[in-house]
Amino acid sequence: MPEQELDLDPPSTHAGWRWLVLVMGLWLASSAFFWPHDPPEATNTVIVGLAMAAVAFGGLFAPRVRYANTAIAVYLIATTILFAHASLVSAYNDGVIAALVFAASLVPSEPASWTGRTPAHHRA
After folding, report:
1. HSE on the CB side for 97, CA within 13 Å?
2. Greatest CA span in the chain, whole angstroms?
3. pTM exceeding 0.85
């Protein structure tokens, strides 16, 4: 039986930021049902939140995908300013999520693997 190489490299660096953005996207999508929203605002909130979550998940495996969330955060900031909001809570929620996702999307990361280890072709 061949000797198995012990992998001492840490798992994906900064992948926690992708998971955080995924959770924030799901929060944003679900927040449309927690307090009053105008119909176009609610639709925008759900679609943007689900897009953020999907991009964050993709960013776990293809780190450059995270830049799509940078663009989505800029879009959310713009719609927060331009759209009428049914409640002030909704506007603040969108603005805070947009700012946090924007910042988190700029943090670089290594690709994750299903085993929790950095793939060999990505190690220095």
Report:
1. 32
2. 67
3. no
